[in-house]
Amino acid sequence: MTADLTDLDDDQRVVATHLTGPLCVLAGAGTGKTRAITYRIAHGVHTGAYGPHDVLAVTFTARAAGEMRSRLRDLGVPAVQARTFHAAALRQLGFFWPRAIGGTLPRIQEHKAPIVAEAASRLGLGADKVLVRDLAAEIEWAKVSMVTAEDYPRRAASAGRPEPGGIEAGTVAAVLRTYEEAKSGRGVIDFEDVLLLTVGILAERDDIAAEVRRQYRHFVVDEYQDVSPLQQRLLELWLGGRDSVCVVGDVSQTIYSFTGATPRFLADFPSRHPGAPVVRLVRDYRSTPQVVSLANRLLTTRAGRMSPGAVTLQAQRPSSEPVRYEAFDDDVAEAAGVVGRVRELSARGVPLREIAVLYRTNSQSEVLEDALSRAGIGYQVRGGERFFARPEVKAALVALRAAAKAESAAALPDRVREALSAVGWSPEQPAGRGAVRERWDSLNTLVSLADDLYARRGASLAEFRQELDERAAVQHAPIADGVTLATIHAAKGLEWDAVFLVGLSDGLLPISMASTPDQLAEERRLLYVGVTRAREHLQLSYARARTAGGRAARKQSRFLAGVWPEEEREVRPRAAAAASAEEMDPAERELFERLRAWRAREAAERSKPAFTILHDTTLVAIARAKPRTTRELTLLRGIGATKLESYGPQLLDLVAEWSREQAEKGVDTPPRGSLS
């Protein structure tokens, strides 16, 4: 396959054909940015503007890099390098270390916690697990922001950094120094050191920098809004004053500021590269108009303008069902509501792997896991055990290596099924949940990946094994067949047919720790990222209380003010609704009572308070207006899109039945009030 530019829209084509000099692409969620930049790379190689080994594409997650490599392979340019910043830097560091430093590259310490705990203990701070976690995060921020221990108090104050674990800045600076001493004593380096050491070598050794620049002449940086000062410095050293760089990003998806990421490099790109074209990708091919409309509203200021630098999305998909808004009594009820809706979607043909439940903090997953397990619905927690570290997956890789040595004319899907049958896979999934089902799910994920690669490019078993080796090297796990549970942060860059955003109450989103304007703005962007993960089905929900019978103190997220359909609260005195009911004639009052009886049944079935179905004032309005059509029903106060979808047909049927009975009695029942 080659890069046929007719497959692109006009804006994407501008990106793909601008092959020289600097280019800034502001790409909204779902606008096909990965498609545009991979076609750009492939077009450059196919036209001879680039050599396949001259290009380095960098992004931020192993999954994104793997997806980019897969697309480049499909476009006929498999030799192009697509890596994360860390992976690219580590490769260069390992190659040049013997020449620049001498000896063998130190071992990388995968987890900071043991060394942070040692440093904290040396300073008499103890080694509390939460404190160690907070200090480790602060160490990472300082290093990617290129903040030294000596400069930490000033820089932390100017950045508005909260005190980790309540420890004042001078003590944190001491932790930074002691951590580095403890790390050196163990003879190891951490992940941030990979970038720092690479930057140091390239800055100090002109010969090595020149060698890297001869290798890579053209750069593409995806998710550029998430670069840290350290990553930006590395990019500048790679470029060495050249300007053949394409950056792609979306300021509305900046959600990693707490780790040192900053959108200012994206925002300032045109000023750093005068004359550089700025292309906006605004056509959203991912989400329905209903989802896109909500996403745009979340970023619209009170003055009716989009947030600075934000892209206004334009939906390209056909209209579909409305966004659903649900309020539940407690967390358990919310989880049960999600499970019920998952069952509905599954019955309608939505695969479980195309459903995700997203939340703000990891602690919110427990009640969801319990509800899904009790319902016998498979799920996977994103960020849990690494896929390629699972014993059954390791056994599968061994079986596939053995199968590759045997001669066979069978197609890839058949060969994979035969090989994995020897380690526990079967065509029929085991009943129930538990370890047996989880092992089968892992193996079946490999079977599904083989089917996909064979359908897409007729892959052989050798090519399938190469794909798995590449994925294992960067922990790019294939998608399993089960509902995905993930924090919104972990869902960045992913998408599903159906998305549930749960726990949307103040204190959870925005998180209670967010207090400054910048922190609150980032929390709003986090909600935007969650919303834009959905292709078609989207449900937003929160629970009024944490536990059953608890105080209903939670309120919906402030970010949804003016967005959430006004929850039917009993804010008006009951006497007002009663007075309106008293004004009705006996026949209308009979209809009103039927409506109330219907509402009571609905409330019981949904385990919700009656007033959350429809308020008394809305029932009075229906009884007086006697709507005959959907349009007439929508003109009544209290009947929005969500209520109309949920209850409209039932209400119209009930009114029609009552009207027929009145006609049989010879009672004239004209509507009262305007329906025009």
Question: What are the SSEs and their pairings?
Answer:
Layout lengths: L9 H8 L5 E5 L5 H14 L8 E5 L2 H13 L6 E4 H16 L6 E2 L4 H10 L6 H16 L7 H7 L10 H18 L1 E2 L1 H14 L1 H10 L2 E4 L7 H11 L5 E5 L14 H4 L1 H4 L5 E4 L1 E2 L4 H10 L15 E2 L8 E7 H17 L7 E5 L5 H10 L4 E3 L9 H14 L7 H10 L13 H23 L3 H14 L8 E5 H4 L4 E6 L15 H15 L2 E12 L28 H9 L3 H21 L9 H10 L4 H5 L6 H24 L12
Parallel strand pairs: 1-7, 1-8, 2-3, 2-6, 4-5, 6-7, 9-10, 11-16, 12-14, 12-15, 13-14, 15-16
Helix pairs in contact: 1-2, 4-9, 5-6, 5-8, 7-8, 9-11, 14-22, 15-16, 17-18, 17-20, 18-19, 24-25, 24-27
Q: What can you tell me about this protein's structure?
A:
The chain has 676 residues and is of the alpha/beta class. It has 5 domains: 5-92 and 195-281, P-loop containing nucleotide triphosphate hydrolases (Rossmann fold), CATH 3.40.50.300; 110-189, Arc Repressor Mutant, subunit A; 324-384 and 482-560, Rossmann fold (3-Layer(aba) Sandwich); 387-474, no CATH class; 574-664, Orthogonal Bundle (DNA polymerase, domain 1). 49% of the residues lie in helices and 11% in strands. The protein has a 6-stranded parallel sheet, sandwiched between helices.
